[in-house]
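Worked Example 4.2. Read the sequence first, then its structure tokens.
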Amino acid sequence: MIALIQFLKGYLRIRVWGFSPERFMNLCSMRNILLWDIAKEGDVYYMNISLKGFRSLRPIARKTGTRVVILQRHGLPFFVPVLWKRKIFILGLLLCISFWIFSSFFIWDIELSGNYQITEDIFMSYLKSNHVTVGMRKRDLDIEALEKGIRRQFQIVTWTSARLDGTKLIIQIKENDTPPILSEEEEEGGKDLIAPFDGKIISMIVRNGVPKVSIGDEVTEGMVLVEGKIPVLNEDSTVREYQYVASDGDIIIEHTITCEETLPFDHIEKEYTGRTKVKYFLRIGNIEVKLDEEQPFLVYDSVIREKVPVLFQKLSIPVMAGSITHREYSNVEYTYSEEEAKKILSEKINEFFSSLEEKGVQIIEKDVTIIRGSSAWMLNGSLLVRERAFMQADTVVGPVPGEDTAAR
């Protein structure tokens, strides 16, 4: 607190030497002139003194035969005159503060979370149609009406929360993840499980429906595996009617997958020359200002670095500053060696194997060959796999046996 008062009133760092510096300090004490941070170097004393006290030193210095020299000036009385000379700096500072305060009355960013089925583009279009946009005034936003409108517009939303955090509008929603209830019309029709490709049934567990094939059977693409038409029998074992259900089960089919990859002998690679050029840009919303629009090199690629300036981070104002580094390169033609070609093609086929395993496909046998063609290296593969596979199709509704006879 004392240091703050001293800064506001201002003080000096002085050097005192001469006939009797000790008597000088005693007289200052008798006249209530405060001296502090006193240091001695030989016959010279260094100390701090207030502006008011310094103005009273002339008779004391004359009486004690000492000399006083100002070394440093500290405090607000010395800072303001220097600052006042820099009118452009003061004007810029005032404009910056005014802009900061003015910007705090607006919404500069909208953050959405909790949306999985509703895309952000659709949600933002809804907000825009209801005049909730970036750049609107905070006082024009009705939080309660916005929450009600979101739940009314999107039936899948069961809960919503909107709040302001500085200049950012944060919207959180929760979607209904309960599976949809089938309508009566959808429940009336049956569903068959059919084979998506040719193969052999390895395993079959039917939970709903009538199995039409058995384990070990060879099936063709489109063949019905499980029928969604369950017969209801009379006492004499004749069919009275059919019940149509959605077939369900786990069916594993063993089949063959073929794969092919080609790799041309020649390819183009980038060879960087080491020459670079950096350009700077400023983006405000959708408006981008670039300092230089000239093409830097004939052939080049670019690395973009951008960030929000510290001044605008807390305000969430859509201002982005950054740089674009252009790197010159030349296109050089190379030819793959046999070793390189086999390595690249092996990596590709291994990625294909990994993708199958991620989908739950079990690979039983592999037969992969790499040969040299007329203009490219070629990979041919044949895989024997087992996977859970079937497709759904509508059950064919047929007449109940004996209906026509009974009708006649």
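Now turn to a second chain, presented in exactly the same format:
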Amino acid sequence: MERRVVITGLGIISPVGNDVATFWDSLRNGVCGIESITDFPTDQLPVKIGGRIKDFDPDLYGIDKPFMRKQDWFTIYGVAAAYQAMADSGLLSSGEERNIDPFRLGVYVGSGIGGFNVQIREIGKFLEDPSGQWISPLFVPTMIPNIAAGNIAIRHNATGPCIDVSTACATSTNVIGEAFRAVKHGYADAIIAGGTDQCTIPIGLAAFANAKALTHSEDPKYASLPFNANRAGFVSADGAGVLILEEYGHAKARGARIYAEMVGYGSTCDAYHMTAPRPDGSTQAESISIAIRESGFDKDKDNVYINAHGTGTKLNDIAETKAIKIAFGDFAYKCHVSSTKSMHGHMFGATGAAEAIATILALKDGVIPPTINLDCPDPECDLDYTPNKAVRSDLTLGISNSFGFGGHNACIAFRKAE
């Protein structure tokens, strides 16, 4: 028997806010969180801007100094976002007020890269002294991409399924989709689901820039330009996003607040190129089509918002536009579309979860966040991308697209809570 799945908690660490209220207020008002990098030298780097996390206070998320010293930032951000989401949901898996069986609470939190900072630090030690005597005994357990999920499970006594997915930029959209299926088919009653990454470090900027993926713009406020004819690559950003997916009956029984219902998930592969998307959009379109079929999309009744992958690279934005047209047909021109990456940048393994949160809040509040800096539209990108200012609309269906290196495509769909 298939079960209904609802969203009962949200948590975010992002360049435009380290809590959900600030994040959403920034997106609605077109606030750009991309800035010149000042916390490490960029003189010799080809890229000098990014979406860095600002004013992070670990005390707000129950993170102590020993944990901060031992862990990579991707784990710290993931733990902070999960802390918010669990507090928001009201789920408790231990203590006298326990309202979920720990074995029915899972953690599906992924990372596109894992402990990037730890890798660089420890490899540097090894190159200086190949005996390895100075390598930290915590190198492996703080570097591996699954360790954020593991630490979140420890903190919340989640003894159900604990899964890490790593599908590059599609990571947390795949994670949320797989968590949706697990709850829907009865393998858990609730899952802490999302993604986390911290890649805006010197070697990360150098690597993505050399792969011709990053913009070299020196103006941080006019750098992330999805669907703009002037676009020249994406902007690297950091952060974490976490959602609580819960079985509808379980949520109702405990009186939980419901943000939205999750109603669809599609996943495909381009099987085309390591980094470039399939140009005709056909495989990306299939992931969207699977999700909207499962959602019960009705072109005569639904008012649709699409949070686009919208990276601001030449190839992605055109391929995604084609994919939306293939999946929706003529209805594509009626869809409200925007790329919130224009404000928060590309958060890699966290970006799908951050954009899922934006999609859910757009449905809840009836507000479509804008694509800022869209002052020179690309003629090949001719849909309604909500340029520059938020738009109010009574939405019924929201979808979020993510496409990653390796050809990984994922799409998730949500309906407005009734």
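Notes for the reader: The first strand starts at residue 5 and ends at 13. The first helix runs from residue 20 to 28.
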